[in-house]
Amino acid sequence: MPDGVIPSGNKGARYGKSLHSPPPTETISSCRASPGIRLECVGLSAEAGMIHRYVFHNDKLLPIEQVRLSPGQAGLLNGWGLFTTLRVFDGEPFAYERHWKRLQKDARILHLPLLFDRDKVRGQLHEVLRANQVKEGCARIYIVYNKVGFWASDESFPQVDLILYSAPLPAYREPARLNLREQGRHAASPIAGVKVTSWLNNVWNLYEAQQNGWDEVVLLNERGEVAECTAANVFCARGGTVYTPPLSSGCLEGVTRGVLLELCSAQGIAAEERALRPEELFGADEVFISSTNRSALAVGEVAGHRFAAPGPVTQRLARAFEAYVVEYIAGVRSQGTGVRG
User: Fold this and answer.
1) Which residues of the chain does CATH 3.30.470.10 include?
2) Could you read off the pLDDT of 86-107 as tens digits, one per residue?
3) Among 315, 333, 330, CA closest to 31
4) What count of other Cβ atoms lies within 10 Å of the Cβ of residue 71?
């Protein structure tokens, strides 16, 4: 085992420096798109995490206190369901089509009937955003399998529940500080990389990392390879080339990950999906992570190994991503599918 990896079940071991070593200069922020112009970073309160009041449940937009979920929904309690988180820029769910395509793929793997129309759900999501007056924020689509397993009730449920809601943007520290976790991902699992509602492995690992002073944690798979963070994909740059773990590592096929790989090609930046060891992160020129709500977020430390952040590749891709978001929103609006009013 490399020196200092936190083994499964032993949060005391660590790489090199103290788990509470002082972080480099940092900011806590989130970025938003001003229509047709650029992304602006705005400071966020750590208390800005409450979901908004109005929720779309199956076929109705309701105040959250009127939404009823039952213990008789078997998939609700055993985690047989899917979700995806979308970033909202100027009232528009970004990359909606990519998120829906991944839901379709994951539903096939989980044998979960996806009984909803893509465009209709998009319209319902816009209803939620209008009701909650969301211009900048995030939204979630949940799909829960009700008719599966033994612990079901005889209530009249649809086969699958659809739940849509929105929330403010979470706050993230930049540059981020990451630790490592052994055996955090099981790449050989048939549902590795599926974004299931049984999310305990992720929130538990994140909780342990944050309790020990880190912002996130890099999850290693059973082969000791880098897979991903609990809610972000991992990238590194060395010699001008960008590297990220392949899907066979057990990582999620992140929407932002996919956009960034396409932008590497468009920007003339060499990029490669290949297996990465922790030591390759330590020896990189730059490390950054990507997710719906982070876009491309610079990393200043991985388990005691520090980097100048953000580096030039990270900054270049962040600018390209900003331009892509603005172009996407303009394209959606020109097609008449964006939110109105």
Assistant:
1) 54-167
2) 999 999 999 999 999 999 999 9
3) 315
4) 11
